[in-house]
Design goal:
Residues 51-95, 109-154, 164-205, 214-261 form the DC1 domain. The strands form 6 sheets. The protein has a 5-stranded antiparallel beta sheet. The longest helix is centred in the C-terminal third of the chain and has 24 residues, at 320-343. A hairpin with a 4-residue loop joins β5 (83-86) and β6. Among the domains are: 21-89, no CATH class; 210-262, Wheat Germ Agglutinin (Isolectin 2), domain 1, CATH 3.30.60; 270-344, no CATH class. The chain is mainly beta. 31% of the residues are buried. It contains 4 helices and 24 strands. Residues 1-28 have low confidence and may be disordered.
Length: 344
């Protein structure tokens, strides 16, 4: 019954070479077991109490609670059994709740990182300094340096064994960017093979081995070699680079870019509010497609991630692409202010 945060990701980690090690009390699990049951000869925590939530969490192992369209509120990836849920709140958790409260991480040597269930800024929205994604969910944070890691990146080890490559991949930070074999983008933080010219960035190393999309009825499998009859994406209808990874339904020959299959912002939770100062009412994240009301800023029909007013009598909606520029500027100003105060 043991489930790892990366259980749906085609990697295995060498536990003896974890990227974040520690031995003192603060590095131990922070989940209190209240009740255990015997499942198939193994004692499993049925009822737990976690520091991040005021209520007790119950193990869901026989589909007592349906969570087909839910994301884990810790790691923001799709739910799979077994998982924990709060019977009083709409909250769902993988067993990544067992992550340690503090971690030392090679990408941030000066200070240990602390696990926080909600980042203190922007109603919990934060920018991961490794995969460069905007994220909700739990965060490993250094408050002093404003350094943030999402739990997916923080959980990857020094050495990965990935299905896409025959040799182990070793974590490292280079002096210059190297193209990732999964997506083709350059990065200086990579998992690389010492015997081959093969490297993966954190985004590709942590891609789920399967995904679902509303435009297709079957699961889509992460695919490394393009043997399809066509080299275009069936979601955005644009060309695909045959050398880059993609998701594919082999039964129907339905193929999609990873960003199209899992979304451009897969770790943002829809329905979460955001402190947007350009509107007097609270706004929340939504995903819109063609045919919805126009963006209040551009006048164009909203497509993709957007912020929508939660007041039912207000029609305000703005595409996230317009807000994200302001969000990035706010982060830069915050970092500059922190650096200035540190100099003083």
């Amino acid at each position: 019954m043991s489930v790892n945060i990366m259980a749906n990701c085609i990697v295995s980690c060498d536990a003896s070479t974890s990227a974040s090690e520690g031995s003192d009390e603060s590095f131990k699990s922070i989940t209190n077991i209240i009740e255990e049951i015997n499942l198939e000869g193994e004692m499993v925590a049925m009822l737990i109490k976690h520091f991040s939530h005021p209520h007790k969490l119950t193990l869901n192992h026989e589909e007592q609670v349906k969570a087909d369209d839910k994301l884990c509120d810790c790691c923001m990836t799709p739910m799979f059994e077994p998982f924990y849920t709060c019977l009083k709140c709409d909250l769902f958790f993988h067993k990544c709740l067992e992550l340690p409260r503090k971690k030392q991480h090679p990408l941030h040597h000066p200070h240990p990182l602390t696990l926080v269930p909600k980042h203190p800024n922007f109603q919990g929205l934060f920018f991961c300094d490794v995969c460069h994604q905007n994220c909700h969910g739990f965060c490993y944070n250094c408050e002093q340096c404003d350094f943030n890691l999402d739990v997916r990146c923080a959980s990857l080890s020094y050495i990965l064994k990935h299905e896409a490559h025959e040799h182990p991949l070793v974590f490292g930070k280079g002096s210059k960017p190297i193209d990732c074999n999964g997506c083709g983008f350059g990065n200086d933080i990579l998992y690389s093979c010492s015997d081959c010219n093969f490297s993966l960035d954190f985004n590709c190393a942590s891609l789920l081995n399967s995904a679902t999309h509303k435009r297709h009825e079957h699961p889509l499998d992460l695919t490394y070699q393009d043997n399809a009859d066509h080299n275009y994406c069936d979601v955005c209808e644009e060309e695909r680079n045959p050398k880059h990874w993609f998701y594919c339904c082999r039964r129907c020959n339905f193929c999609a870019h990873p960003k199209c299959a899992i979304g451009k912002d897969p770790y943002i939770k829809l329905g979460k509010t955001y402190p947007y100062e350009g509107h007097p009412h609270p706004v929340a994240f939504v995903h819109k497609t063609r045919g919805h009301p126009p963006c209040s800023k551009s006048g164009n029909p909203c497509k993709g991630l957007a912020l929508e007013c939660t007041n039912p009598h207000c029609n305000f909606i703005i595409e996230w692409c317009h807000v994200s520029e302001e969000h990035a500027q706010q982060l830069i100003m915050k970092q500059k202010k922190a650096a200035y105060e540190e100099e003083d």
